[in-house]
Write a structure and sequence with these properties.
about 260 residues, alpha/beta, Rossmann fold, 2 domains, six-stranded parallel beta sheet, two-stranded antiparallel sheet, 8 strands
């Protein structure tokens, strides 16, 4: 019997990692200390990351050790550490967290319905696995697809080509990465918006994106992701097929799909 997959983004979808609040600030503090002056090395690292993304170098764009090493070399010094041990130090509660109650139970319920689960993330395995393990996520997934393992990253639809069987849906919180990848692959794109206004919650999740208020909301989201504040329209490849405000809604949709 062919496998039926539901794939998930991690950061911003299922979990909060410690990079922004803990790992990056410590990197900045250490580098500034060694230089004897304050330097916003994280801003420079992010700029290099964005350049690599624009160039389609999706694997290189998330190689934070390489990016740190490059910037340190430009500063005339060697990188003082690798990032993985630092990440592991911070991969503990409350520095990491699941983004809503009951996520583990819902993942288990999806698996019990016969679906296989895969993570599709742009974070390297060595940076994601410790966080997943700390939150109890690791054992729920049959595959963990990361750029250095697959050879590409989101939004490239080839990211999920290694999965044999049918990918039923991809769930994520970014239009530029998750929704675009799914749409380009003709997979049902499920966009997570936990701040969905009450008036939009009244709509069926499969109908929300057709409402002009949701379209406007998606446009504003994409402006932030792309930093294109002048944009006045959103390409169809960036519009989600399904909009949910909780993982419980995802379970309901999968049940209806299976029943229908």
């Amino acid at each position: 019997m062919s496998k039926r997959w539901v794939t998930f983004d991690l950061d911003g979808t299922l979990m909060q990692n410690p990079f922004g609040a803990w790992v990056f600030p410590e990197i900045a503090e250490v580098i500034s200390g060694k230089l004897g002056r304050k330097i916003d090395i994280i801003l420079e690292m992010v700029a290099e990351h964005e350049l690599r993304m624009e160039q389609g170098r999706y694997v290189d764009a998330y190689d934070w050790d390489d990016i740190l090493g490059l910037r340190c070399k430009q500063l005339g010094m060697e990188a003082p550490f690798e990032i993985e041990p630092l990440l592991r130090k911070h991969a503990v509660a409350p520095k990491i967290s699941l983004l809503e109650p009951g996520i583990l139970e819902i993942l288990g319920a999806i698996k019990s319905r016969g679906y296989s689960l895969a993570v599709v993330t742009n974070g390297f395995y060595k940076f994601q696995a410790p966080v997943m393990e700390g939150l109890g996520l690791l054992d729920y997934f049959d595959e963990i697809l990361t750029p250095e393992k697959v050879g590409t990253g989101k939004p490239d639809p080839k990211m999920i080509d290694v999965l044999t069987g049918e990918v039923v849906a991809h769930v994520g919180d970014r239009l530029d990465h998750d929704v675009q990848m799914a749409n380009r692959k003709n997979v049902t794109s499920v966009f997570v918006d936990r701040n969905l206004p009450d008036e939009l919650k009244e709509f069926d999740p499969r109908q929300r994106s057709s409402d002009q208020r949701m379209r406007t909301r998606c446009l504003e989201k994409w402006k932030k992701e792309s930093r294109n504040t002048a944009a006045i329209a959103l390409s169809s490849v960036l519009m989600p097929a399904v909009v949910i405000h909780s993982m419980q809604e995802l379970l309901t949709i999968l049940d209806e799909r299976k029943g229908g």
